[in-house]
Amino acid sequence: MKYKITVSIIVLVLSLPAANAQMGAADGLQIYLPREIAIEDRIIKLGTVSIIRGQKELAESAEEIPLGTFSVPGQKIVIDRPTILSRLASNDIAADKVTLTGAEKIVVRRNQNAITGEELVEAGKLFLQKTGIYLSACECRSMKTPKDLVIPADSNEIGFDVRLSKRSTAGQAYVQIDVLSDGKVIDKVQLSFQVRYKVQKAVSVEEIEAGKVISSDKIKMVEGLSDRPQPADWKAPYGLVARHRIPAGKEIETNMVTEKAKDAVVSRNQSVLIKVDRPGLVVQAAGKALEKGSAGECIKVQNMESNRVIIAKIKEDGTVEPVF
After folding, report:
1. pTM for the predicted model, two decimal places
2. Of 62, 80, 110, which one is at a domain's C-terminal end?
3. CATH (domain of 286)
4. Domain that holds residue 120
5. Are residues 65 and 123 in the same domain?
6. Confidence of residue 75 (pLDDT cuts 50, 70, 90)
7. 97 and 32 together in one domain
């Protein structure tokens, strides 16, 4: 991903014969829009990219209306007439009080002889917001703001080559920015970001004893931050059993709970009925369970007629079915 900056000096000569005729109006504004302009500030205000005439208080208010902000070096922002009228209206200046002349849209660039540390950090954040696991991050905080970089006076184009370091993790991102002047690297900057994700957490509202089932009245769901994104298959621990005592106000983590043990329906050495039930075919035989188990589990069973040991699945009714 690259960002380009064009450093230029624009001398703007305005000839406003048409607008001058209307500047005597006391109840409205006349705003002249140039086709292109370069400004020094990071924040674009209507007064810095146009010429405003008219009622003094109204003109002063219009001059301070923000139209946008440069987020990265080399950025070009295009502002059209509908956008200007919309911003004026949001500041209680109706369109019928405004006369626009000049260009249909303004191309705004920024003159700058340095790239600030804040701009480098912003470039790193924009890169992470479009990259891999960091797409779902809710917070990217720079661990340190780098020093400002001076742009060579003879540079025509400044660009960024931004990439992710291999040692980056889900919660810690390292971004390498190569600063290019006319296609050549003039500086290298490494940024580190602490990354956080929004996650759902289950917190106990009362003490839960070991072996007790986690029910909805024992926990509450809260939103929190984590250094890793929440797994797509994450579920609240409803119906699980506490492995040990969980105090009130404790976040319930995966290693604190387990699946509820199924009630054993077959005991070791218990007599069982071996049964094969298929459409048009029912076969039964007496057997002895060599292991204990619950419905759905497979255990070893001895066929009492043939003395053969087979693997059989325990059914809900207590019979066992050979696994073929």
Report:
1. 0.52
2. 110
3. 2.30.30.760
4. 114-196
5. no
6. confident
7. yes
* Structural domain count, the chain: 4
Residue 8: band (very low, low, confident or very high) from pLDDT cuts 50, 70, 90: very low
Last residue of a domain, one of 210, 226, 258: 258
Check whether residue 236 and residue 294 sit in a common domain.
no
- 64-101 burial, b at 16+ Cβ within 10 Å, e below that, comes to ebebbebebbbbebebebeebbebbeeeebeeebbbbe
Model confidence band, residue 54 (pLDDT cutoffs 50, 70, 90): very high
The answer to whether residues 304 and 272 touch, using CB atoms and an 8 Å cutoff, is no
Average pLDDT over residues 245-251: 94
Residues in Cβ contact with 239 at an 8 Å cutoff, skipping those fewer than 6 apart: 213, 214, 215, 260
How far CA 195 is from CA of 124, 222, 306, in Å, comes to 12, 20, 65
Lookup: tokens for 111: 């003159």
Rg (CA), the chain: 36
Give the bridge partners for 257, in sequence order: 242
The mean predicted confidence, pLDDT, of the chain is: 87
Taking the mean position of all CA atoms in its chain, how far away is CA 250? 27
Stronger pLDDT, 15 or 91, i.e. the higher one? 91
What type of residue sits at position 261?
A
For residue 245, the domain's CATH number is 3.90.1210.10
- 124 and 55 together in one domain: no
CATH number at residue 105: 2.60.480.10
